[in-house]
Amino acid sequence: MTTPTLTLAESLKCSTQQAHNQAEHSTFMTDLLEGRLPVAAFIALQQQSLLVYSALETALDHFADDPRLATLGDRRLDRASRLRDDLAALGVRATQANITALPATAAYVDSINSCVTNNDLLGLLAHHYVRYLGDLSGGQIIARRMMKYLALPAEALSFYDFSELGKIKPYKDRYREALSDLGERLSDAETHHMAAEATRAFHHNFALFSELGAQYPTPAAPGETPDLH
Asked: Is 13 annotated as a binding residue?
């Protein structure tokens, strides 16, 4: 009996599952989503994210004329300007020049920039897949939790607003279909390369969350003695 061949979208999902779960369930993200961290922690996350999205969007500009980007490179997904607006709504003037990149963020940006240096559109599309499908999925949960626990207004959460795309689920389905159409034209080596780069992107996210977690550790429970060692 022949084993069904996975589509590119299915292959990326399966190959990144462990790294995805590790990032998603990091202590920092768990604490943030359960309302244990201050708004400063969310601001720090969005500031580092601005550096990542700025690099990603600049890289997409580089490949703007590549036909392989035609169906996947929807610039309505761009988030950098929305991040700047959200941070401004929180009283933070954010530009790439006045944000200090954490080491994990710098490494993440380097990975994205290397896709341009190496003329590696497939690697860039792997980063595109991780970032934007994540925003369209778990990102929606983050927005609701930040409204609930931090009482943030909608104007500080426009990063998570994709209403101009229409209904999110059909959009994600079309994205995966476009990804799978691309996959039909790729060699096994190219598919494996995309999977490896997507996994690397999740590892970058986990490293960033770990560094943010060191800055914003889990608060001690009431009556609990902080660990000073």
From this structure: yes
